[in-house]
Amino acid sequence: MSSVGRYPDPVITELLGDGFAHVLEKQMGKRRAGGDPGTGRGRSGGAGIGTGRSDALGTRSNAADRAAVGGVWSEAAASGTGVRVVQPPRLFDKAFRDASAARHAADIAKLTQAFIDLGPDVDPREAARAARVVYTYVDQLVVEYEIEDSPLIHNSKVNFGQKPRGLCWHWAVDLDIRLQMERFRTLEIHRAIANYNNIRLEHSTTLLGRRGGEMKDAIVLDPWRKGGVLTWMAAREDTRYNWTPRDEVFAYKRRMQESQGDTEGRATERFDR
Known about the structure:
By secondary structure, the protein is an alpha+beta fold. The chain folds into two domains: 11-86, no CATH class; 94-259, no CATH class. The protein contains eight helices and seven strands, in the order E-H-H-E-H-H-H-H-H-E-E-E-E-E-H. Strands 6-5-4-3-7 form a five-stranded antiparallel beta sheet. It is globular, with a radius of gyration of 19 Å.
């Protein structure tokens, strides 16, 4: 289960569907137009609700904004949209991110171009920001997860409680949340699972593609595969894994459970990966 309790400030995120941050922004704007100015500025390292730029993280965290977030969450929960409240990551300081970006400068440039090549409607500035965020945040997760071994050995240590996180779906969830903080307009986050018929080989990832494009053309962002070293490529070019959209996998597993007469779901099954 995601270790989110150590992060201080709540944010609404759409783990079950891209685009809810845009709904949140619109709803909060409506509330402020009705008398909640929301002029506060939060701590560095909080959620990027106020600016949409997490590298300069100016977070609105006053009482009006908290009330607005709470109200939107209540409406979303009541409407059954499947939106959850999760905690945003507290980012490492700017010096860490700048050093990481400098270390990966050539790779960031290549990933930026890969995002741009997804289509003419991709904003080059968003592409550059996305590439920087991915590489610098993967470096942060390497530290937080205490990565020292190969992926399978690290998995065993996580399962035995010797390491805090670092299973493939931890990487996918945490990177998903971090990218959502950027509120991209021309890029779209996808989640996918491979080998879903074999629990021992099942693998999860986050992808980033052109908004409105097909997942097979999106870029796989897989830091787990090489133990914290980012592997990326278009999903259709990934010869190691055959990726299926996560929602389709979840629907398949629910049907299998229902066919076996298990309408409540097995205790060992997880649908939040």
